[in-house]
Amino acid sequence: MSLSGRFFAAIYDKALAGTEKAGLGAHRKTLLSAAAGRVIEIGAGTGANLPYYSDAVDELVICEPEEPMSRRLERKLASIGRKVRVERAPAENLPVDKESFDVVVSTLVLCTVGDPRRALAELRRVLKPGGRLLFIEHVRAEDPGLARWQDRLNFLNKGIAHGCNCNRNTVEQITAAGFKLIKLDRDRLRKAPPLVRPLVVGIAVRS
């Protein structure tokens, strides 16, 4: 357990509080209303999505590889009254059977995974045919000027934000992994640093 990992987990909720109130929480609520059946969430962090899952979710498996985050997540689970299975597993190696879930949820995760291609292949593996990927991710800017600054300062963002890349072409990576986009909205993370403001919210189907 690294010192940086413990520090990041300790400040995570407070650091995102303003952004959540300024629109991110509303995006979570709207997107996760589409979650139903057997659902698996990757990189759950401290459990920001937990309040937004409805009774349409029959089974919820939450994966979080970082122990400091997992500890905070497990404490939060004790207060919500929902049966949830927690796995300390990375997105690249999920300990579940293939084609066993109706929905995969990824919110602010694919910016940080070590191998996005492998992670997306794993998400596709665990989804049933026609299963859906629900995602909220900050991404590389469409504005060329901001994108250049994201490239220049990505090393700094990774150092400050515990491995988070601010310049990934996540939507392109999702489609390249064998998903078909059925909904995509672009927005910005209000009250967040400019490098991580470009935001996508979408639903993709396992093709």
Number of strands: 7
Compute the gyration radius: what is it?
A: 16 Å
Estimated helix fraction: 25-40%
Uncertain parts: none
CATH fold annotation: Rossmann fold
Main β-sheet description = 7 strands, mixed
| Strand order in space, largest sheet | 3-2-1-4-5-7-6
Q: Roughly what is the average pLDDT, rounded to an integer?
A: 93
List the helices and strands and how they pair.
Layout lengths: L2 H30 L4 E6 L14 E7 L3 H11 L7 E3 L13 E7 L8 H11 E12 L5 H17 L9 H7 L2 E10 L9 E9 L1
From the structure above, extract its key features.
Rossmann fold; 7-stranded mixed beta sheet; alpha/beta; about 210 residues
What does this 3D model show about the protein?
It is a single chain. The chain has 207 residues and is an alpha/beta fold. Helix content is 37%, strand content 26%. It has five helices and seven strands. It has helices at residues 3-32, 67-77, 116-126, 144-160, 170-176; strands at residues 37-42, 57-63, 85-87, 101-107, 127-138, 179-188, 198-206. Helix 1 (3-32) crosses helix 2 (67-77). The model has no long low-confidence stretch (mean pLDDT 93).
Short description:
The chain contains 5 helices and 7 strands. The protein is of the alpha/beta class.
